[in-house]
Design goal:
Length: 474
């Protein structure tokens, strides 16, 4: 046996450091202390368990898996074993080892079926496997066992949204403010619960794609509220000035403006909850109107049959970005299809990646033409098709009813895409090409290339038929 007393001392100080959020370096300090506890007593399971937890928080999942396995090799109680397996299951899940994760989590349940984290983690696995019934069942049980835990309720919310129980899902999703978006709870007014005749401060709490998506509920909110002050992301300001020009009781404010005088606050994503909309009302909500700008098409490459806009990366601030962003090299596979030319509608931090690999002649960069969403819309009208990752561009395409093929990650996924291709929320012209359990993009793009070849072939057949009809008429 090692030096248990010193190990406990290091462990306790590590716990204190991990809990102290006053400095970003404290988590790294905690890591050193937990590692030191393992060195001081390599027979102490709890030291490796806490070390694994800290590694998981630092997103070192493969190393955390090894730490949990080491903890299981020590002398432990049934209670400790259940918790180790529960956290091992989570790290395996995030690492993409879904079958192994299920084994670990079910072992945790066998040992102790009262640990809420096990049920919550299992719900995530079942969601990835498109088993929405089990996802909801396990998420609900995890929440019931620990109703004050925001993580449990957030998992329950997502299970409901993926399962298309929208009204209940959006109600549960309000927990996100207590879970992660604490800054909203510091606002100088209460949350708006849909009361009439209130001056409402409406602000975005997600990316601009989400703001765009939920803008469809602003007209309904304006009929309930006395007045709305809406914080608007720069990319959306021009679009919203057009879409809401018919609303007399709304004031659009650019991000960064001072807090307005108001009675209550809410967010765009919270509007279905605040308005107490039913599943049917949420589904049936119409998208906002948008300006149609007719610009010169001198940017188009001549003598090509199919002009395809592409986007491969989303914002790195989004939790699912590590799953959804695709190396741009995969989009070069589309060049195998005769008559296709690619146009990058990628903006932001990923915009120069196509040029960085020397793809100037294969992927025309349209980012210099794009200042905001209105510019994107003006480009979309002259493209035949858009192929992109799970990003805001998919929401823009849905707004303008542009055909869009989404290369969907196995593990990231958007609840609006959902479990089934025939049940996407607000995206009638989208087609999904989803990764398999191997989480590889190669097979996804092989399927996209095959579908493009079929489309080009069908177009050529249609051209021949039209030519034959013209010849007969002559």
């Amino acid at each position: 046996m090692g030096d248990r007393k010193t190990a406990v001392q290091f462990h306790n100080q590590g716990v204190a450091a991990a809990k102290d959020k006053s400095a970003s370096t404290n988590l790294a300090t905690a890591f050193q202390l937990f590692a030191s506890a393992c060195h001081a007593d390599p027979t102490w399971a709890h030291g490796y368990y806490q070390y694994g937890n800290n590694l998981s928080e630092l997103a070192n999942y493969k190393t955390s898996i090894a730490a949990y396995h080491r903890a299981l090799q020590c002398q432990i109680t049934k209670h400790e074993e259940a918790r180790i397996y529960a956290n091992l299951g989570w790290s395996l899940y995030v690492d993409g080892q879904i079958e192994e994760s299920l084994k670990a989590l079910n072992r945790s349940l066998e040992l102790d079926d009262t640990y809420p984290g096990t049920w919550t983690n299992l719900s995530q696995c079942y969601s990835l496997l498109d088993d929405e019934e089990n996802a909801i069942k396990h998420a609900k049980r995890g929440f019931e066992l620990d109703p004050d835990n925001p993580v449990s309720e957030a998992a329950y919310a997502f299970a409901l949204l993926f399962g298309r129980r929208l009204q209940e899902g959006f109600e549960r999703f309000e927990i996100r403010f207590k879970w992660r978006l604490h800054q909203f709870l510091q606002y100088p007014y209460p949350k708006w619960l849909g009361e009439p005749d209130k001056i409402v401060f409406l602000v975005a709490d997600q990316g601009f794609g989400d703001t765009l998506c939920f803008a469809r509920f602003v007209h309904a909110a304006s009929k309930r509220a006395k007045f709305i002050h809406a914080y608007v992301q720069p990319e959306l300001m021009r679009l919203f000035m057009h879409a809401f020009v018919d609303i007399p009781n709304i004031n659009l404010l650019p991000f960064g403006s001072s807090f307005p005088q108001a009675d209550a606050w809410t967010t765009f994503v919270s509007l279905p909850f605040a308005l107490r909309l039913s599943d049917e009302e949420i589904r049936a909500a119409k998208q906002i109107s948008y300006p149609v700008l007719h610009l010169p098409t001198t940017w188009m490459v001549p003598d090509q049959k199919l002009h395809i806009g592409i986007q491969w990366g989303g914002s790195k601030l989004n939790d699912i970005d590590k799953y959804r962003t695709i190396p741009v090299e995969y989009f070069l596979e589309l060049c195998r299809v005769p008559g296709v030319h690619l146009y990058s509608i990628q903006v932001g931090e990923h915009a120069e990646e196509a040029n960085a690999i020397g793809a100037h002649a294969l992927i025309k960069n349209l980012s210099p033409y794009i200042r905001d969403v209105c510019d994107t819309v003006s480009l979309l009208r002259d493209l035949d098709l858009v192929i992109c990752c799970e990003s805001a561009l998919g929401h823009i395409c849905a707004m303008v009813k542009k055909e869009c093929w989404i290369a969907s990650s196995f593990q990231g996924r958007d609840y609006r895409i959902g479990h089934r291709a025939d049940d996407m929320l607000w995206s009638p012209r989208h087609r999904v090409f989803r990764q398999g359990k191997d989480r590889q993009w190669g097979p996804v793009f092989n399927r996209i290339v095959e579908a493009l070849n079929e489309r080009v072939g069908a177009g050529e057949k249609q051209d021949r038929l039209q030519g034959q009809r013209a010849a007969v008429l002559v």
